[in-house]
Design a protein that fits this description.
The complex is a heterodimer of chains A (about 675) and B (about 70). Chain A is mainly alpha-helical and about 675 residues long. Chain A is about 60% helix and about 5% strand. Classes of the chains: A mainly alpha (about 675), B alpha+beta (about 70).
Chain lengths: ~675, ~70
């Protein structure tokens, strides 16, 4: 039996899906978290007779006439795959709007079971709904549910009703008799929709009793006025992000990381003593420095990442993220995007892939592609170890580096969007409308679940892709082209060094023209965590967390001794890694969302150019400030950067000429119409 | 007049949605914002309006507020 979950955005479909299937799909307190359908089997304890129950979680939709492409997913699934039963999840706190979609679903002839979700919240706001009357009027079972609660949540009753509905041969009767011809004219379908709403409005007055008018000002509205304030909005956002980075990278994170790294060191030593003196030195180095050292360096950041994800999950749950979209809308609008674009970017702070996929909620094609191109600039979870490493090694105070990278990313995105709008010459605007979810106290339990699911993914990645990459890097740096072990004092003769050196030459103007850094940048395309792993392997440092080792000497001289680069170059390398193309998996996601080769290659070229130019500026300006002179390779670098900027300016000019032409065409058309 | 010129906390009745975008009109309809329905401005921010339609709050931009006639 196939059961579909359908309902308005942010009514709690995925929360209910997780509750009945035991899965841990991503949830958040804002509309549009789910953009793809997801399948799962109902948990044993809710399904005692072991019925074959497959549940499909669908993206939220306000109606059967889709506005954005993720709403299309829902409509197509229901119409083409004909599920056996539909659980229509209705937000009890917004009955009249939710039931509009319900009336459309009831006309399909598929058995419907209504789940009256968030019934605890409705009670709290003084809303009482007569369930028997609602069920009678809608001609389908209605079950009260609270999917955030573990017990007494109505879910067993819901599943029972679903099984009964699925087994009976009764065709779903529509409460509203409408002429449902296949191809309705626009006017007729508008008339039908009006009738649906009239029916719903009458129904709601009958079944619902409210203590308070929804139009009354609440404390939440007062809070919104401050949080989304014209001037205060941005500083509040900055403070929130700073707090998140402080907790994860300065307070709780390092404390946990110290304990954790202790274990890795212990493992390293015990494996070393187990191997003893007789083992082949090449094999020993592969196991110890390549695998344990390299993977350990990455895994060492796990506690920091877990704490960060815990904080971000709390934020997502609170309803704050939707407010960030309002704060940013003003700035994004000026560069041809809208506040909608901030949602994929916030999702992208976890991982760019779901972030890029979330661009589906953007209707305008240019805005969607631009957002898909720029979302990978947000520091994702995999880039975090890189940020944490450089923040710790080069800068004692850590939280500001993370926070400033966050805001630098937003700034780069805004500049990027401006450039892309010029190049495409597409100045079309779109309206911005977004539902504001209610604030709520974030659930520690949900944040914990989210944190562990991210941690699991991180460990799996470290144990597979990153382990293999580190082993390969270790082997390539151990041997030269004659497959002889390279001499201790001549590491530059290894295969890895000779492969990476030509690339490293390009990085001289950026301050990190060493083959180790070039190799790490390349392995970073496979997974960004590899940057840390490869640096660990090539520099033979395994403990990046215990920055006391670096801090003891304090000065940049010692860091120079380990990495051979200055702090300015370190920051440039960090910037380069953040603002170059993302990992291959994210590039794949960009490809499928952009649906255009031209856009994809344009995006990759743009991202490479952005990374190079920014790193050049950071290194050269940074060196000028700290050392009073220009950095190495300024001349050739300047030529390269000037060439890049020249090309971009040329494309922008060309684009804005096209814009004038297209707007002329539009005026001509307008005249013809008149 | 357009909703953009409306006062705070005053329920208005939607008269029409004045836009060439067919999609946004249908979308607003699905939310319950169509001629004859109530709409209230809860607050005006920098260039955004927080409005109440039925039982939910939405954030809309000035362009859309200008398109909704009450």
């Amino acid at each position: 039996m196939k059961v579909a979950l359908a309902g308005n955005p942010n009514c709690g479909k995925t929360t209910l899906f997780n509750a009945i299937t035991g899965k841990i799909e991503h949830v958040g307190n804002w509309p549009g978290v789910t953009v793809e359908k997801k399948e799962g089997k109902v948990k044993q304890n809710l399904n005692p007779n072991n019925e074959d129950l497959v549940v499909v979680d669908l993206p939220g939709a306000y109606s059967m006439s889709p506005y954005t492409s993720e709403e299309t997913v829902t409509k197509d699934f229901i119409l083409n795959e004909r599920p056996d039963v539909i659980i229509n999840i209705v937000d009890s706190t917004n009955l009249s709007r939710s039931l509009f979609f319900t009336t459309q679903l009831l006309e399909l002839g598929i058995p419907i079971v209504v789940a009256l979700n968030k019934s605890d919240l409705a009670e709290k706001s003084g809303i009482t709904i007569s369930v028997p009357l609602l069920s009678e009027k809608l001609k389908c079972p209605v079950i009260r549910t609270i999917s955030t609660k573990a017990t007494n949540n109505g879910l067993p009753e819901l599943i029972k009703a679903v099984i009964t509905a699925g087994k009976s041969d009764r065709k779903q009767e529509a409460p509203l008799k409408l002429v449902t011809a296949k191809a309705l004219s626009k006017e007729d379908s508008e008339k039908a929709d009006k009738k649906r709403y009239t029916f719903v409005n009458a129904l709601v007055t009958e079944v619902e009793r409210k203590k308070m008018s929804p139009e009354r000002q609440t404390i939440q509205d007062q809070a919104d006025r401050i949080i989304t304030h014209k001037w205060l909005g941005i500083p509040i956002f900055a403070a929130v992000i700073y707090l998140v980075f402080s907790i994860s990278q300065s307070w709780v994170g390092p404390w946990l990381a110290d304990i954790f790294v202790g274990w890795i060191d212990l493992l390293y030593e015990s494996v070393a003593s187990l191997l003893g003196e007789d083992v082949n030195p090449v094999l020993g180095a592969l196991l110890l420095d390549g695998i344990i050292g390299g993977v350990g360096a990455v895994i060492g950041f796990l506690p920091l990442i877990m704490v960060l994800f815990f904080c971000l999950a709390l934020l997502e749950d609170s309803g704050y993220m939707a407010r960030v979209a309002i704060v940013m809308d003003r700035f994004f609008k000026k560069v041809g995007l809208s506040g909608r674009s901030i949602i994929p970017m916030i999702v992208g702070t976890g991982c760019s892939i779901p972030g890029v996929m979330a661009t589906r909620t953007i209707k305008n094609a240019r805005q969607r592609r631009t957002t898909a191109m720029l979302t990978p600039f947000m520091p994702c979870g995999a880039k975090l170890p890189v940020i944490a490493l450089f923040a710790g090694v080069f800068f004692g105070e850590k939280a500001w580096v993370g926070t400033s990278m966050y805001f630098l990313a937003i700034l780069v995105i805004i500049i990027g969007a401006l450039i892309i709008r010029q190049i495409t010459g597409d100045y079309s605007k779109s309206y911005f409308i977004m539902e504001l979810p209610k604030y709520r106290v974030p659930s520690i339990k949900r944040a914990t679940i989210s944190m562990f699911s991210r941690a699991k993914a991180f460990i799996i990645k470290a144990g597979t892709i990153i382990l293999v990459c580190n082993a390969v890097v270790q082997i390539l740096q151990t041997f030269d082209w004659q497959f002889q072990v390279v001499a201790e004092n001549a590491p530059e003769t290894s295969i890895l060094a000779s492969l990476a050196t030509p690339l490293a030459i390009l990085f001289i103007p950026l301050g990190f023209g060493l083959w180790q850094f070039a190799a790490a940048a390349v392995t970073g395309f496979i997974a960004k965590e590899n940057v840390v792993g490869t640096l660990a392997v090539t520099f033979a440092v395994s403990n990046f967390i215990d920055t006391e080792e670096f801090a003891l000497v304090g000065g940049s001289a010692e860091i120079n001794a380990i990495f051979g680069i200055s702090a300015a170059a370190g920051l440039a390398y960090l910037v380069f890694n953040l603002f170059t193309p993302p990992c291959f998996a994210a590039i794949g996601a960009m490809n499928s969302e952009m649906e255009s080769r031209k856009w994809l290659f344009g995006a990759l070229g743009f991202q490479l150019a952005m990374g190079y130019v920014l790193a050049f500026l950071v290194y050269q300006i940074g060196t000028l400030i700290t050392a009073g002179t220009l950095g190495e390779g300024f001349g050739p670098g300047l030529i390269a950067v000037a060439a890049i900027i020249g090309i971009v300016v040329y494309l922008m000019r060309k684009g804005s000429r096209n814009k004038q032409i297209s707007s002329q065409i539009q005026t001509v058309k307008g005249e013809v119409k008149l | 007049m357009s909703l953009a010129k409306g006062k705070l906390n005053t329920p208005y009745i939607v008269n029409s949605v004045n836009t060439e975008h067919e999609g946004i009109r249908e979308f607003l309809f699905a939310l319950g914002c169509y001629p004859g329905e109530r709409i209230t401005i809860i607050s005006k921010l920098a260039s955004n309006y927080i409005i109440n339609i039925k039982d939910a709050r939405y954030s809309i931009d000035e362009d859309l507020a200008n398109a909704i006639m009450v």
